[in-house]
Design a protein that fits this description.
Helix content: 25-40%
Structural class: alpha+beta
Number of helices: 2
Order of helices and strands: EEEEHH
Largest sheet: 2 strands, antiparallel
Number of strands: 4
Shape: elongated
Radius of gyration: 14 Å
Distance between the termini: 30 Å
C-alpha cells in the first residue's frame, strides 16, 4: 500500500509528494506553487485519484480486493 503520492498541478505543472490519509479521501488540495485549489475530476473520489501518481488508500484496497477475487479459484 502506497501512503505517499506525487500530485501534479494541472495548471502550473508543479509536483509535490504528499502523504495520503489511510482511511479517508482528500477532496481539496491547494497547489503549493500557484495556489490553485484542486478538486477531484468527475468520477474520482479525491485529488490523489485525479492528480496523483498513486490512487488513495481506500481505492488501493478496493483494487487489491478485486485482484484477489479474480485470482480465487471458482468452484
Amino acid at each position: 500500500m502506497h501512503l505517499v503520492s506525487t500530485i501534479s498541478c494541472p495548471f502550473c505543472g508543479h509536483k509535490s509528494a504528499e502523504a495520503m490519509p489511510a482511511d479517508a479521501c482528500v477532496v481539496f488540495y491547494e497547489c503549493k506553487k500557484c495556489k490553485a485549489m484542486l478538486r477531484p475530476k468527475a468520477g474520482d473520489c479525491c485529488v490523489f485519484c485525479s492528480y496523483g501518481d498513486s490512487p488513495c488508500p481506500p481505492i488501493q484496497r478496493s483494487q487489491e480486493s478485486a485482484d484477489n477475487d479474480r485470482r480465487r479459484p471458482r468452484g
